[in-house]
Amino acid sequence: MIRKSVAGFLIVMALAACAGTGGPEEVTPQQEEETPPEAVPETLDLLLVTGSDGRVTVINPDGTPVRELRGPVAPGHPSLQPTWAPVSVDGRRLVAWTELGDDGAFSIALGDVDTGETTRYSAPVAPFYYYWSPDATLLAFLGQNALSPLEMGVLDYRRDSVEIVATGQPFYFDWRPDSRAIVTHVNEALSLLTSTGEAWSSKDIPIRPGRFQAPAWLSGDRILFVTPTSQGSVRVSLGVARNAQDDTSAPQRLVLSDVEAGLVLTLTELEGAAIFEADPTGKWVAVYEYSGPLRVFDLDGGGETVVSESQVAAFEWSPVGERLLFMEVDREARALKPRVWDGRDTLVFPSFLPSRVWVVQYLPFWDQYARSLTLWSPAGDAFTYPGMSTPNAEDQIFVQHLDESQPITVGNGVFASWSPAPPDRAPRS
After folding, report:
1. Bridge partners, residue 200, by sequence
2. What confidence tens digit (pLDDT) does each residue in 216-239 have?
3. Strands, E, within 71-112: which ranges?
4. What is the CA radius of gyration of the chain?
5. 348, 356, 349: which is closest to 395 by C-alpha?
6. Do residues 105 and 120 lie in contact, with contact meaning Cβ atoms separated by under 8 Å?
7. How far apart are the first and last CA of the chain?
8. Which among 40, 197, 248, 328 is least surrounded, fewest beta carbons within 10 Å?
9. CA–CA dist 103, 9 (Å, integer)
10. Among 34, 81, 63, which residue's Cα sits nearest to residue 384?
11. What gap in Å lies between CA 21 and CA 341, rounded to an integer?
């Protein structure tokens, strides 16, 4: 999904030697404690924060601490891409992240929010992106070794198994809602990865993709992707920052199709490269062409709404699909302007200076990250973001409640995401 030159930490990863797969190692982050850690309240409303010092912490939305999953680490040993599991499994609320050991080996860490315990699995590549299956039983990841293409792996922690299932670059993907398959967009091909429970198989989807990044699995066997209007007229260029997309005048279209490439619906004609996201209910699709505007399409035949004519850096649906959060770009101030569209009106919130980690590692690929994490609270009444109060200030985590005019600062950190909404609050069949 991400090229080495885009995310600075990938250069460190590519130069490091990586260990092979292996079994898990049980550890407790706070080993100096003689008493068991305090129980975490059974709340679905928590923030996962990445610190500039490598800390991985869980806090309440008001900033009060809940659990430190990983303490501060030495420079060069970051905690990369902490990502919530979408649901609890056997009563366990899990978080995944990458660790780099003193021996130069990478591991996949699974932290239990309730107990504070961490299980580590040796990684065959240097993982830099995580995406849990919808049922949280499998953890897909992208990684890379020195001078090699990107590789996609799957961790099955129930079987203590780490398996590489696909290779290619650039690499984007989305899970099927039943967790049994993955649709991938790798270089100039779409493919279907299917799991039998014991092994993965790959099948090409017989259609040429256009200029987009992450596909979207809408429901059942229906997927969203972009394809050229004329199969012979488009030169594909993927995996680069959106301001570097080339050949933006070539026509293409956003289509809803089944996995056998049977066209179901053409949503819109596009003038160039685009990103898109379906809301959790499968009723709405937000689409942004790199030259604008940001539009929303009603899949039930309700037509098209222009939400913003400005340049947009990121957008994401609330857990129940009623609201669309989007970040307009203020180039002169080098700031982002949060906006929330509720289907009729747009709420306007104060501009902020985004953290460098968010700008470099997340925003150029936000359509992929929007598949695997959320800035929205489970109730859809607030959102979070990492930023600075003034240039060169320390990165902080902010929470903006929709019924408040100003955000609140809940702590220091370079990135944060909210705990996912329970499945019954975000239906997707």
Report:
1. 195
2. 998 888 999 999 985 433 222 223
3. 80-84, 94-100, 106-112
4. 21
5. 356
6. no
7. 26
8. 197
9. 17
10. 63
11. 45
Q: How far apart are CA 93 and CA 85, in angstroms?
A: 7
Kind and range of the H or E run holding 337: strand 335-341
Q: What is the pLDDT of residues 313-332, one digit of tens each?
A: 999 999 988 899 999 999 88
Q: Is 79 helix (H, G, I), strand (E, B) or coil?
A: coil
Q: Which residue has the higher pLDDT, 172 or 197?
A: 172
Residue-level pLDDT at 8: 30
Report how far residue 422's alpha carbon sits from residue 15's, in angstroms, rounded to the nearest whole number. Answer: 39
Distance, CA of 89 to CA of 185 (rounded, Å) = 29
10-37 confidence digits (pLDDT tens): 222 222 222 233 344 433 333 334 444 5
Sequence-ordered list of residues with C-beta below 8 angstroms from that of 317, at least 6 positions apart, any chain: 277, 278, 279, 280, 284, 286, 323, 324, 325, 376
Q: What is the rounded CA–CA span in Å between residue 227 and residue 289? A: 14
The whole-angstrom separation of Cα 21 and Cα 162 is 6
Q: What are phi and psi of 175, to 5 degrees?
A: -85, 145
The amino acid at residue 68 is E
Provide the pLDDT for residue 41: 56
For 361, the token pair is 């590692």
pTM: 0.86
Q: Which residue has the tokens 């009723």?
A: 283
Q: Put the strands of the sheet holding 263-270 in their side by side order.
A: 216-219, 222-228, 252-258, 263-270
How many CA atoms are closer than 13 Å to the CA of 302, on its beta-carbon side?
12
Helix (H, G, I), strand (E, B) or coil at 286: strand
Q: Which one has a higher pLDDT value, 416 or 14?
A: 416
Q: How far apart are alpha carbons 127 and 139 in whole angstroms?
A: 11
Measured from the Cβ of residue 38, the count of other Cβ atoms closer than 10 Å reads 9
Q: How far is CA 118 from the centre of its chain?
A: 22
